[in-house]
Amino acid sequence: MDHVPIISPSESEFANPIDYLSEPSIQRLGRHYGMVKLIPPANFKPPFCINRETFKFHVRVQNLSELNILNRCRLFFIKQLNNYNRASSGKNNANDKTLSNPYVKLSTGETVYLYDLFIEILKYFNDGENNNRKRSRNLQRIINFPSLQEISRDTRLWKNISHIFKMDYKSLQEIFANYIENYYEYLATQTKNRGSQHLSKLLYQEEYPKSLLSDDDASGEEEDSEDEEDEGCAVCNRNTKPTKMILCDSCDKPFHIFCLSPPLDSIPKGDWICNNCIIGNGYYGFREETRHYSLEEFQNLWNNNEKSLTTNAATGEPLSIEQLEEKFWQHVDDMENSLTVKYGADLHGEGPGEISGFPSKDYKPPESKIKCSDQDFENYTNHPMNLLNLPDAKGSLLPMFDRKISGMTIPWIYVGSTFSTFCWHLEDQYTLSANYQHEGAPKVWYSIPEGSCDRFNQLMKDLAPDLFEKQPDLLHQLVTLISPYDEKFKKAGIKCFKAVQQPNEYIITFPKCYHAGFNSGYNFNEAVNFTLDSWVPYGVEAVADYRSTGKHCVFDMFELMLNVVIESVHQSSKFQRSLVENCFREVRQILNSNVKTIEQLLSSVLRKKFVLGRTVRDEFAHRRKGNLVTQDSQYSQEQQQRGSDDDEDFDVFCTKCKTICSLAFVLHYKNGSNRKRRKIQSMTPTQLNELANNNNGELEILCLDDYVKLVYDSDIDDQRTLVKGDDEDIDPFENDELNYVRDPDELYHILNMAGKALLGWT
Q: pTM above 0.85?
């Protein structure tokens, strides 16, 4: 595998990183390779300034074999099968069919994974070309469960299946009949009864989901029995009528029997298992140890327990990076391997010397711990490639928010051990990232450049279409791997490159670069995000992509572009004209589209409209030269009183698609009546989001697009125009409220001023 290029900026280039990384030659490297390794000038050797006395961290426990997407799906499937057999055995007196392995071994020595057979059958019937059964590898979702009779009689199906598994089709038919058939029929019946063939529609939404594989992660830690007693119904979240509640014998979660779909008349005898455990919710997460380690304790743990992983068992010689790489992927791919490793990841301390390993104004190690003069220490403290400063470096757009975002504008720390891993992912909102290694063993990186993103996405969805239907934002969760050396990976035509990072080296990732990797031993890294002018179109694209998967945006892209436009009116020389024009066009297009939708809704559906307390008029009026103000004075005072609470929301999110409601949202009362009136215009974004998420389904906050969809789905005339119900007494939208987050008239005023400024720009 080819390595990414190494760039070595001069001292002057290194002191202006945004300009340097924006150079066309570097941009071309970023697009082609996805990332580059940056080696700083020889005299740049910042002292390691973590406070070893106070810095403590918790670790994630990673089971390497479960990170492989196919391994995990196969293990999920056997759990689901066993849960189904366990739940159904009491109903039909069938023999217990608990399976210990996710595969069947034939007398001929061949191995057939039950999940693989199940999913290949579904792929065949969901390829989008059912008329001629031409098989496609581009399955997006499972929507069709044909009858068992159709499956058994389709000779072309079994011919295809036989070709895929390279074995006699009769053996495969027998495996399906003996192990999968009843479970398949259950799924088909469930989807038919619910009027939807999407597996995800059979599941209930969980605030705190439990993975089907978590039973294997025995932590030895006692659970809080008081919390268990107070736990409400998994569907309605209430703990009323406890005598009408039943516990799932798989996940131990309580349910009201009348909240189930279909509801139960009484509590059944024998084992009862919920749908999320039979059908599978697809959730997977890392267990975190409650113990906190110091760096010394963690290094000693590595020396005592993990050093054997990095040496040749026969000779005692250290393994090379290439040998470690091969060994790592063997552990990931081998389902029978149960190797677990520990990783201190996404660490964000709060005290002096705990936020970053770079020099800072808040903490200076004892003189005996550093080898530089006071002047050099101050220079390192202020250097733009100090990751505490890079997000705010000249040319980066993230300062336009005038707030800190943990993990993006404030570095996160990563303390690695042998084979601890970071799974395939894109950076938040497709921003660029910089990762610096302070000390320790090499970190191995893999990059998939933006040109191969679609192929990679398609490969992963094709391998596990049911998993992506249940977890559409799976690749944003950082829990999934596939080896870049895998035959399927290569066959898909995905470009991939490698880097080996050593201490005092940076890895720079560019927009829409999937990256993953592992640590070859103990090391200490930190990472932060930043932007270039060329990133803006990627940021806009991320908003649409996040909406399709239900992932929350970290910041409001509309607000960022709007702030660039506002700032350009005051300081025309601050940004490149091309950036301002790009932001101007995007803001105008979004505004016009939203206003058109609002006018349509107000003329046909909505009767009430309000303006929230935080308006753009306040933003614009309270701006001061050289100091970006994005809130009105009252809001700013409230924010200062609250402090920098990571749990505080800055934006209002749509309940359905999780997108940020930048201009307006609709408060929709599901039952059509507003029995409990709420004055939401003075609420903070956090209070609004909590109101929508903790009201037991009575009301929703909907973005304009989702509200329009709701109206169309509810009542449509022949001309496909918005209409109201004929019976005013049952009008489901009668009490719905349109709420402006920003005043459109003020936005048009800003655009008018910015447009004039652009015309006069020389």
A: yes
